[in-house]
């Protein structure tokens, strides 16, 4: 057997569960008590979605995003968004090359496999919108020319709570580009806070040791291979009917001013397939839907008389709707020749 572990990793198929374990380990080395957030980030990465992380300053939102991108083997760029950031600062611009006597396109930081958009709601709407086409289409248009972005393309944006000074709420069209809206908060227990202090004290020394001991490095191709297994996850007719029933319940609830769109429903299905793959299962069950639906729909659901951007009221309504919607009792298994979520290198 070859000793070149990096070669063997890129040439084999990466099991989604293996990716999840790797990301949990990488983030856990630097951040305490955010396992649920990392699981949803892994789910979105496997499902081809993007994630919005909300929380007060200092709760490790950027650290989590940076660690996930690095552990997944995705070249990453971080964009610090402020009110004076222009769209061209994100996408790039045409500059005149005097030696060539012609204009050439200088790519912006969005041209990376992973983009960490820090404090996205501190940017003006024009700068926020610069990411919209990139997140939906995987490309950007500058001066009438279209430029494709690297694949896979994964955006993790952080934002401060909307009641903080200097924030600009994201429009509904921008929010709809995020598969998940996740809340990151500091652990409440004293023991957890002591663990945070200990982790911070030891991080620099341990980071150097772990980099030297790392057995292999993932690549964007490995993420593609894991996504291939996720795409093969089976979704039975009863599960699809269950999803439709959830949406219909939200449409008829008087507390919901606007229900999620069919595109949001597709996002829930994709996320549920990724969650099934993480659980080493080749088909989706109702529990997979429940594990992803609230984070996938809370930012796409408008609640009557609730402040704009208030996801807590939406989360409460979604939880009640999930509890009240009948769960299918019979879920068919996939055909015997369907690739399993556990296929690939462990």
Automatic annotation (TrEMBL):
Signal peptide: none
Disulfide bond keyword on record: no
Keyword annotations from UniProtKB, A to Z: Plasmid
Biased segments, Basic and acidic residues type: 200-209
Tagged with keyword Transport: no
Region feature (Disordered): 199-218
Protein known as: AAA family ATPase
Taxonomic source organism: Salinirubellus salinus
């Amino acid at each position: 057997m070859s000793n070149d572990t990096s070669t063997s990793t890129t040439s084999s198929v990466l099991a989604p569960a293996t990716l999840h374990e790797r990301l949990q380990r990488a983030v856990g080395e630097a951040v305490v008590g955010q396992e649920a957030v990392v699981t949803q980030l892994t789910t979105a990465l496997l499902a081809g979605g993007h994630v919005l992380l909300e929380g007060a300053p200092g709760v490790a939102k950027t650290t989590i995003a940076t660690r996930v991108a690095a552990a997944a083997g995705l070249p990453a760029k971080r964009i610090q968004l402020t009110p004076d950031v222009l769209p061209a600062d994100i996408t790039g611009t045409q500059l005149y090359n005097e030696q060539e006597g012609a204009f050439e396109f200088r790519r912006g930081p969005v041209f990376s496999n992973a983009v960490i958009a820090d404090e996205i709601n501190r940017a003006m709407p024009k700068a926020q919108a610069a990411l919209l086409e990139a997140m939906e289409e995987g490309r950007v248009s500058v001066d009438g020319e279209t430029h494709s972005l690297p694949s896979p393309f994964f955006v993790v944006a952080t934002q401060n709570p909307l009641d903080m000074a200097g924030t600009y709420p994201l429009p509904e069209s921008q929010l709809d580009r995020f598969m998940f809206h996740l809340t990151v908060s500091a652990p409440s227990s004293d023991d957890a806070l002591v663990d945070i202090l200990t982790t911070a004290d030891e991080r620099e020394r341990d980071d150097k040791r772990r980099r030297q001991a790392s057995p292999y490095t993932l690549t964007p191709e490995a993420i593609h291979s894991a996504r291939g297994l996720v795409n093969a996850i089976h979704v039975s007719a009863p599960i699809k009917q269950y999803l439709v029933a959830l949406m219909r319940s939200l449409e008829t609830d008087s507390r919901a001013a606007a229900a999620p769109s069919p595109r949001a429903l597709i996002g829930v299905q994709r996320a549920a397939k990724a969650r099934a793959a993480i659980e080493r299962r080749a088909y989706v069950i109702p529990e997979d839907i429940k594990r992803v639906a609230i984070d996938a729909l809370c930012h796409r659901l408008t609640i009557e008389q609730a402040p704009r951007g208030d996801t807590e009221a939406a989360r409460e309504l979604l939880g009640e709707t999930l509890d009240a919607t009948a769960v299918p009792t019979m879920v068919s298994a996939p055909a015997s020749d369907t690739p399993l979520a556990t296929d690939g290198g462990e």
